From TrEMBL:
Pfam families: DUF7674. This is DUF7674 domain-containing protein. Residues 11-96 form the DUF7674 domain. InterPro entries: DUF7674.
């Protein structure tokens, strides 16, 4: 299995305390990663957002399903939980991620919210255009 902790430590020093807790799984880290993304969205910090979404997408693309699945359920499933940030979040989501996480959104949300997310994703341009 890929050593996600080494990559996370190098890319996201802000979360080193979480990475260093050996007893905590990547699910805990990815949840904390989303909290860092929320702060960065609120602060307009594109540099941090690039690192956050870059790491989440790296996990998503791993051939071992464990990290990929973890990124879906512990990060991407929750990206629209802070509804007021939806316009800022949508451009950071690659199409391949959306395709895989959308069934989870369908299960969690009312039709109106899903329709709004679909509209935002269609407007956001090329998938992941802001990704690093």
């Amino acid at each position: 299995m890929v050593d996600w902790r080494t990559r996370a430590s190098a890319l996201l020093p802000e979360l080193s305390a979480v990475v260093e807790r050996e007893s905590w799984s990547c699910h805990v880290f990815l949840s904390e990663l989303w909290q860092l993304a929320l702060e960065a969205h609120r602060d307009g910090d594109r540099e941090v957002l690039g690192r956050v979404y870059g790491f989440a997408h790296w996990c998503f693309r791993q051939p071992e399903r464990f990290l990929s699945d973890a990124s879906v359920v512990s990060f991407y499933e929750h990206v629209f939980d802070e509804w007021e940030l939806r316009d800022e979040v949508a451009p950071w989501l690659p199409a391949e991620v959306v395709d895989r996480v959308r069934p989870l959104w369908e299960w969690r949300w009312p039709k109106e919210r899903l329709t709004e997310v679909d509209r935002l994703l269609a407007q956001s341009g090329p998938p992941g255009r802001n990704a690093v």
